[in-house]
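Hello everyone,

My group is preparing for a crystallization screen and wants a predicted model to guide construct design. The compound we'll soak is LLZGTKA7. Before spending weeks at the bench, it would help to have a computed complex in hand. I've included the protein sequence and the ligand's SMILES below. Output in structure-token form would be ideal because that's what our pipeline reads.
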Amino acid sequence: MTAPFGARLAAAMGSHGPLCVGIDPHPSLLGAWGLADDASGLRSFALTVLDAVAGRVAAVKPQAAFFERHGSAGVAVLEEIVAAGRDTGTLVIVDAKRGDIGSTMGAYADAFLRDGSPLAGDALTVSPYLGFGSLDPAVDLALSSGRGLFVLCLTSNKEGHEVQHARTDDGVTVAARMAARAAALNADVAPLGSIGLVVGATVGDAADRTGVDLAAVNGPLLAPGIGAQGAGARELAQVFGAARGQVLASSSRGVLAAGPDVGALRAAARQAAQEASAALS
Ligand SMILES: O=c1ccn([C@@H]2O[C@H](COP(=O)(O)O)[C@@H](O)[C@H]2O)c(=O)[nH]1
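Reply:
Good plan to model first. Here are the tokens for the complex, ready for your pipeline.
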């Protein structure tokens, strides 16, 4: 029986520090690395990132969109990278941000969270904006298979407030409601629940303003926005406060820009992990 994702992530962050390296094969990065913008370029890019950081960081996060834009050949590369990442023992968070009505969500859960599925990593990013309950099939399968979810809560983009800061009839913000639902699923779990949230490192004091109690979530907090989107150590410390021990900082372009040299990528990831660790300790 696989240990729960939250426990596996806590152990990985304890061993390697609180950094997740995003595998985002942007066309511009492929070009800068001297690779073609096709499936073979994607494959070289992603395998190089794994070579550089697997076994050295807590997690990697392939961004599905950059693979899907190449159709079935790109999805086949994503499958290969998910398998290769898992073989190294480094946790794989598939960033596909799925969300749909419950019956269709069951199919997404099968694709990304079921044992034996070629797209199943250790965790999946999901969108709760069809209602948190629409995620039930993914929650059930994640928890029963030792996997995890990262539910979008306070996203790093500037438009996120339009939905996430809105208040429902009872005056509670949408973001706070999503966080409370995740907290209920993680109640009494130690050391960390498996239903995490996405909270951008760029959101400033949004958690306070929206009434999101990050520490009470008792689950991991995936924090994109480091590096290319402008956040750094100061922002990490400011945004997460008392919840800093739950944070998995995520950087894609900030690390990937150091490639294609494996040693340079490794050094960039090491530096990002050290900075995140110092900011969050
Ligand atoms: O709120 C969110 C949720 C997800 N992301 C994803 O993280 C990476 C960020 O890449 P950088 O190059 O480090 O900016 C990317 O895959 C996004 O889709 C996010 O940025 N914000």
